[in-house]
Amino acid sequence: MTQTESSLSNDTSSTRQDVDIETSEKGPHVEAHPESRILSPVSETEYPEGGREAWLVVVGGWFGLFCTFGLVTCVGVFLEYYQTGPLVDYSPSGISWITSLQVFFQVGGSAVWGRVYDSYGPRWLLLIGAPVYVLGIMMLSLSTQYYQILLSQALLSSMGSGAVFTASLTSTTSWFRKKRGTVFGIVNSGSSAGGIILPIMLSRFFMTIGFGWTLRVVGFMFLAFMAISCVLIKSRTPPKPRPFALSDYQRCFKEPIMLLTMLGGFLFFWGMFLPLNYIIIQAKASGISSDLVPYLLPLINGISLIGRLTAGALADLIGQFNCMLIITAFTGILTLVLWIPGSQSTGAIMAYAVAFGYGSGGYVSIFPGCVGQISPIEEIGTRIGLASLVNAFGALTGSPLGVHPSGGIMAQTKALAGSNVRRSRLAPFSIQFLKYQQNPDHENSSLLSLFPASYCSDSYDLVSPDGHLATCIMKELDIERLSRIQRWLWIAGSPVPARPLHSQIWKDREIVITEDMDMHLVWTTGKIFIKPLPRFLLEPAVWTDFLCCSENCDCSTGADGEMQDCEQRKLHKVALGFLYSYAALIRHESDLLLAKERFLLPNDNIRWSDWTTFIRQLDTEHIYPDINPRFYHKELQLSRLDYIYYFIQGNPAGFARRWHRSSTFLKANLGWITATTVYIVVVLTSMQVGLATEALGRDHAFQSASYGLTIFSILGPLICAGLVVVLSVCILVYDASQILVKVNRRLDHFGGQPGHGRNQDE
């Protein structure tokens, strides 16, 4: 277990910042490694979120993606031409290395171009990349040998297209925050538009004007389109030239969130380009009409256009990683269900083309936003570029390794493509949990060290968590008493975030430690109860093993036709809501200092830069569907919870009894008792004076009122005393009944042998 306590303070995490700042009021100051500079992410108030300049950048990016990734998505047309034309003597696997290397250098080159972007902005990338890209296409139009095609298409043109691709995709990040998913979808739709138009154009022109002139036409068209990109694309933030530092890349591999995001991208790209490269060849081998085959890639890319736009908008609503989970699971499952068993069916291939087009388009649209969400704005180019390089290794190896020597696609490879696309969802799924950092003892000790020494079971035994971690977690996260009155919690506290710790001190509330989750953020006169942040909630293994839905649970299959939360999902919502409450409690650096002084955090060495990264990754703006509704509300007033239990639950003991002695009750209520007594005395004195006057002394109504109030003043205290006695008796009877139930249960549990109770199983 590597880093429960120190992960929030380790050196590698201190450089992580979420540029998709959705919850904070201003960007944080980030403390970086000693050898690196200090980063200052852009404040959320500085994002234009629109305007003429911002949308012109989007238009320029659209044309850039049309020319670069749009051509990559129709590499299947090139493979078909090479296998039946100039490279007919080469194996399909050998030919596929050309297109694989093209994708690798274009996408993977972003690791270099992204670093250039961070230092010098997009202008130089476009001015250099566009001519090099067009030169490579022109050289390809003259190529007839394998090595010539490899050098021109896989190396020269992809180097230039990689620079244009990086500038077009990355430049929008500094202009948009809340709309970033939608904007990425719009920009990436340019590649889908290219994937619709270019395959048809290439197929027709290859047969009419030949390979060479087709590419020259494409080259001149790209030159015009990329000229538009050069004019429109610019970065809002000024570039900050700095020397090359290998540590900029190394930090990414030390951050679990970034590492797993890149791993997910690698797996997806490993399986993604196999259908794009070979669906045309497979369709021909399956006997699909030759008139229909040229339209398969345009169909995929046409549907991917819808996927890119809708997935981007959906990501803005539910979060980047949540949307990624849905897209990757959808694509992987349909690859396994449609592509493998339906390889000889025209209908199945067409259906798969539609499904894969939507899923792959959505993934390409969302992935940069996922990386941007966990990256500082000053390093956005470097990090997106590095992630693209890792993706490129998947694209490089997936297609050549999956081709059968005869030219077909091995069934095992199809299954691997589907499983890899589906497995890529593990990265965003794990990231949802790794947002809570790592435990430093993960590899050296057991999870047991993160839990309490013991807990009280339902049979009132003290049980060690060893072997009963699931039950212990249920006890630690138990809010059953609040769940019973969920619909009435608005009476005890407004549905707004809790006040920060410094406001609690300002309200003269003493912070009292509680280990009961249902007493967390409950306040009474002069005090507020707060549960310290448990160490086990900072351990990813706990989330994945105990707070994660299992397969075929009620969450996924539903019960009686209705979707329900399984027990793990319910606990997950409580745990995530608890972390959300800490996001509200610790909003400023002064709050962090107060939390350390009150021992609310498991580590005194947590730095402010680490905390801001930790909290922002919770995505608090979109967190509400994923947390228990109890945490919608701010601090809950204990007296009102008692009244809810008195009058709605019918429980005479209330929610949490605060008075165990009469003197304590009188002290707590002395104010209103004194005020009532003084008021009655003043009224009686006034009436006595009034009766002495001639006018009021003869007024029959005034005399009746004086008489009634006098009787009330005499009988009122007696009635109140009687009610107190009756209430005390009711409470005594209730307590006695509860005690007898517990005693009988314990005696039955002991079986006549006290001290030998059995532990409760999970």
Automatic annotation (TrEMBL):
Residues 1-16 have a biased composition (Polar residues). GO terms for molecular function: transmembrane transporter activity. Residues 17-36 have a biased composition (Basic and acidic residues). Keywords: Glycoprotein, Membrane, Transmembrane, Transmembrane helix, Transport. The keyword Oxidoreductase does not apply. Residues 1-36 are annotated as: Disordered. It is found in: Membrane. Pfam families: DUF6601, MFS_1. It is a multi-pass membrane protein. The chain crosses the membrane at residues 54-82, 94-112, 124-143, 149-170, 182-207, 213-233, 257-280, 292-311, 323-342, 348-367, 670-691, 711-736. One of its GO terms (cellular component) is membrane. PROSITE patterns: MFS. Residues 54-435 form the Major facilitator superfamily (MFS) profile domain. Belongs to the major facilitator superfamily. Monocarboxylate porter (TC 2.A.1.13) family. This is Major facilitator superfamily (MFS) profile domain-containing protein. It comes from Fusarium oxysporum f. sp. lycopersici (strain 4287 / CBS 123668 / FGSC 9935 / NRRL 34936) (Fusarium vascular wilt of tomato). The lineage of its organism: Eukaryota, Fungi, Dikarya, Ascomycota, Pezizomycotina.
